[in-house]
């Protein structure tokens, strides 16, 4: 009987071994991995696109604040004329630059830290929770130089915003031609 049971086991093992390769391996043949990615992109808006100063006298100051009046010392958010908003998906830095004021056939108004003949001062300020901090007084506002980028805020969160303002100090003029300047806001990834 033992012999017979051994033969039956041997035959069953042979049958199982013969059948297994045809049936394949039992289990999952595929597995999925879901990938989710959020793009980093830079974008911003600015609420004001123009500053129509009109006629300016020599050696005067014009303010681009919410009410056109001189800024308080120190500058505060409610004085801002414009609101720049980070509409991108990541924390960013916002800065600004401007070129000297030009017109065809007339001397350039040069941007400088002090006024002079055909030389102007264009100052800019904002308040924010991160550097640079709001200046204590007009003398501490950041002054533009031709094409030099001026930092306004560092590490501005996505959907965050800043309120900002400017002033223009005139020197003396050598003619009466209208000049034009363009302030360009820039946004870069905060690293």
Count of discrete alpha- or pi-helical segments spanning 4 or more residues: 1
As a percent range, the share of strand residues is 25-35%
Low-confidence stretches: none
Helix content: 10-25%
CA(first)-CA(last) distance: 82 Å
Total domain units: 1
Mean pLDDT score, rounded? 88
Instruction: Specify the overall morphology.
Output: rod-shaped
Number of strands: 10
Tell me what you see in this structure.
The protein is rod-shaped and about 125 Å long. The model has no long low-confidence stretch (mean pLDDT 88). The strands form two sheets. Strands 1, 2, 3, 5, 6, 7 and 9 form a seven-stranded mixed β-sheet that branches. The protein has a three-stranded antiparallel β-sheet with strand order 8-4-10, with no helix packed on it. It has one helix at 2-23; strands spanning 44-46, 61-64, 82-86, 92-98, 110-111, 119-127, 142-143, 150-156, 161-169, 183-189. The protein has one domain (56-189). It has one helix and ten strands; from the N terminus they run αββββββββββ. It has 191 residues and is mainly β.
Using brief descriptors, characterize the structure shown.
10 strands; rod-shaped; 3-stranded antiparallel sheet; 191 residues; mainly beta; 29% strand; 7-stranded mixed sheet
What's the short story on this structure?
The protein has 191 residues and is mainly β.
Secondary structure: elements and pairs:
Layout: H1 2-23, E1 44-46, E2 61-64, E3 82-86, E4 92-98, E5 110-111, E6 119-127, E7 142-143, E8 150-156, E9 161-169, E10 183-189
Parallel strand pairs: 5-6
Antiparallel strand pairs: 1-3, 2-9, 3-9, 4-8, 4-10, 6-7, 6-9
